[in-house]
Amino acid sequence: MNLRDLEYLVALSQERHFRKAAEKCFVSQPTLSGQLRKLEEELGVILIERTSRSVLFTPAGDAITAQAKRILAETKELTDIARTFTDPMSGELHIGLIPTVGPYLLPYIIPALKQHFPELQLYLYEAQTHTLLKQLADGELDCLILAQLDNMENFGSLALYHEPMLLAVPHDHAWANRRQVALSELTGEKLLMLEDGHCLRDQALGFCFAAGIGEDQHFKATSLETLRNMVAAGSGLTLMPKLAINPLLTDSGVSYIPVVDPEPSRAISLLHRNHSVRRPCFNEMAKLIKTSVDIVVK
């Protein structure tokens, strides 16, 4: 048994497809399949039920795969420990981001990260919060950049920036030229929202419900860009995080108005496992992200 065999097993558990798992591991399908058969022979148990349509893991396969994930995570931790004593800002770093942050934050920080930390190899993954938290806990990701929520106390956290949400209205709306809008003025309105699973939806709803603002149930968007287009088409109003607003786009059909009393906002943080040895790296990254984004969100 070797670590590569465990990587094949974990890849197959994630992909549930021999060809895709082989591609993920950069080997041929016969190589991956053959090594997993050898692993089964060595362990003396059947790990996988092979059918023409699907890949099913046996109870033994599930249990051994879970342990394999832990072994691979611990092995990576050994490499990370060694790196902290040589060059903490080098090597691979796997970062997870939520969809309402990644596309808008990355253009500001990637050039700066490459310039200041050229030996750092960044791997970026986008998914919803609940998926990213599990991947971080399982050791599949090194850190996350997302909106801070109450259920994240089990992870270490570094504050990055505080991001206000602006009211997005069609250009021909009566409020389009307002300098600001009090949250209480939206009482009775119904706003367009993202679909379930997006933490931004939950945060926006928290502000809305407190102010007596409802949700437009006729449409739920899968992305901020869909919400933006719906507003431009005159289908409603929504709250948009400031980093997602490009001040150079004046012909988008949408006007953005600051909301006050109170100002809807969210805290964006860098999350990591509490005892991660890569904390020095995260500290430096957090400083650079704060500097790169601070002017934009104010």
Automatic annotation (TrEMBL):
Keywords of the record: Activator, DNA-binding, Transcription, Transcription regulation
Every HTH lysR-type domain range: 1-58
Gene Ontology molecular-function annotations: DNA binding; DNA-binding transcription factor activity
Gene Ontology cellular-component terms listed: protein-DNA complex
Record family assignment: Belongs to the LysR transcriptional regulatory family.
Family matches, as PANTHER family: HYDROGEN PEROXIDE-INDUCIBLE GENES ACTIVATOR, TRANSCRIPTIONAL DUAL REGULATOR HCAR-RELATED
UniProt-recorded name of the protein: DNA-binding transcriptional regulator OxyR
